[in-house]
Amino acid sequence: MRWTAISSRFFDTVKFDRLMRLLARRISDKRVLRLIGAYLRAGVKLPEGRVEATTQGVPQGGPLSPLLANTMLDPLDKELERRGLRFARYADDFLILVRSLRAAQRVMQSITRFVEVRLKLVVSRQKSRAAALSACAFLGFQIRRGRIVWTDKARTRFKERIQAITSRSRGVSSYCMLSELRRYVVGWLNYFGISQAYREIPAMDQWLRRRVRMYYWKQWKRARNRRRQLIRLGIHPAEVYKATRSHRGYWWMAGTSIVQRALDNRWLTERGVPSLKQQWIEMHYGKQNEKFNPAAVNLTGTA
Asked: Cα separation of 98 and 89, whole Å?
């Protein structure tokens, strides 16, 4: 099966007058319409403090934006339904599924013309494509071999965010860092946890713990403090001497057996470091499977 994916760039290009006319068909209270108009024309505050007037577009991330997107693109939904096409849409991102590449190219051209001529919106040529379903992404997911998986871009963004949270240059306490880390990881997996790509989870979980170990190793800074911390955590003084005299980098040291034994998984869990692996298992199999070994069964299509 092939499909057409179109991104309309709605938030940047919506015309205020057309949007307000569509809203006026549904909203009779002119006070509400005036409030929405003031919201759209409120302007954008730039980093340097200057306010820039807005003449078109809807604020991304604004509380009204999803509702306004649905209002503006409702005619598109009706048109796709009229043509009998199968589609999925979330705000201004949508997919249209057809049976062949030729059909996808034909539908893409006609729907692009409908969006730009009838709705007066701009279709993003860079993001739009006619391709096999497995080659396209929607809301951070792909379907590969019949399984839902997150995209490579979503995984990269996850790692970039974790690196930012666990950076020692931020100047926040370890308590604040761990609190933010928990919120982000739990929220990320609550969204992306429907992915069936368990095979990636253990490696990501291990990488996450190594990032936290590196954070503490950098936090201890001086060799004398590192020796005291490692001995307190049960490492033999002879091994401690070797570790604290090493000139290896932070990331390399975080992967050594000495640091891993000192800051073991139980120690990290006690401080609130989240477990991607455990959370994924509980989401898919329930908490009664806490001792469940995912490697023992076919979770991802392979043993």
From this structure: 15
